[in-house]
Every structure is written in C-alpha cells, then in structure tokens.
Task: inverse folding
C-alpha cells in the first residue's frame, strides 16, 4: 500500500515539473500553450482508442506516430528558427490525416461511433483554430469562425503550477 502512495506522489511531482517546463516554453504565447495542451489530449486519446486494435494493424501505429508527431512539432516552436506558419501547415495536414484514419476505423467497425464523433468534432475545431492562428495572430474576429466558450475549457492546473495567479486561463 505504501508503495502505491509513493508512486502516486512521484507522478504528481513529475507532473508539476512538466507543467512548469511547458509553461516556460510557451510563456509568451497563451495561444500556443492552449494548442499544445489540446494536442497532448488528442495524442492521449489516440493511444486509448487504438489500445484495442491488434499490434499487427498498421493504422494503430500510424495514428500514434502522427499524434505524438504533432506534439513534437509544437515543441519545435521553442526553436527561434522554426517558422510558425510551417508548423501550423504541417499540423493541419497531420490532423486531416488522423481524421481520415479514424474515418476508416469507424467505417470498419473498429472504433465506436461515440469515440469517433468526439474526436472528429475536437479535431475539426483544432483545424479551424490552427488556421486562424497560423499567421501569429490571436485575433478571432473577421468572420472566419467563432469558437465555442467550452472549447477553451482546460483546467487551470494544466497550464502551470496551481499557486500562480498571474496566468491567464483563456482568450
């Protein structure tokens, strides 16, 4: 029993360190921090959804690689030589690839309609969001699309250490 508590405490401590590191990478751009957190969740969801597929199924590994690739691609933005528009273009392409693969899995009966619809809705929203911010603008006006308020619903503790009150949590 005590061993389980030790493991849980270690995981919690590592999570806090990760939050601080990620916040420091994207500290000047809440939009990128928001997208990074969303792509982490998408990647996690892809892993959960593909757990039930056979290890011999190539689409299982392609979905996982693409999901992790999006997260890695976003981390490349910490490098000053990375061009935001190129990263956003690649990300959009990867999201569309994921959508295509999920569509195939759904039509083949390998994933549930509920999981497919949730992921499809989230990924389509992310494509729209990425296309709005690809040029470095955080302006969501101009009639290109309206984001729902709940789209930005990420718990405050996912942005950084909880005792930081100066961190904005939305746009």
Result:
């Amino acid at each position: 029993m005590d061993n389980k508590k030790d493991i849980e405490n270690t995981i919690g401590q590592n999570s806090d360190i990760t939050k601080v590191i990620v916040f420091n990478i994207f500290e000047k751009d809440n939009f990128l921090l928001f997208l990074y957190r969303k792509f982490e969740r998408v990647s996690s969801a892809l892993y959960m959804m593909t757990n039930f597929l056979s290890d011999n199924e190539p689409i299982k590994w392609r979905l996982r690689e693409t999901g992790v690739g999006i997260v890695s691609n976003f981390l490349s933005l910490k490098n000053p030589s990375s061009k935001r528009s190129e990263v956003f273009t690649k990300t959009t392409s990867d999201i569309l690839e994921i959508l295509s693969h999920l569509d195939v899995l759904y039509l083949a009966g390998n994933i549930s309609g509920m999981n497919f619809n949730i992921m499809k809705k989230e990924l389509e929203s992310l494509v729209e969001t990425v296309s709005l911010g690809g040029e470095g603008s955080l302006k969501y006006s101009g009639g290109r699309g309206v984001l729902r308020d709940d789209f930005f619903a990420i718990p405050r503790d996912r942005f950084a250490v909880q005792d930081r009150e100066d961190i904005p949590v939305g746009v």
In short: The radius of gyration is 17 Å.
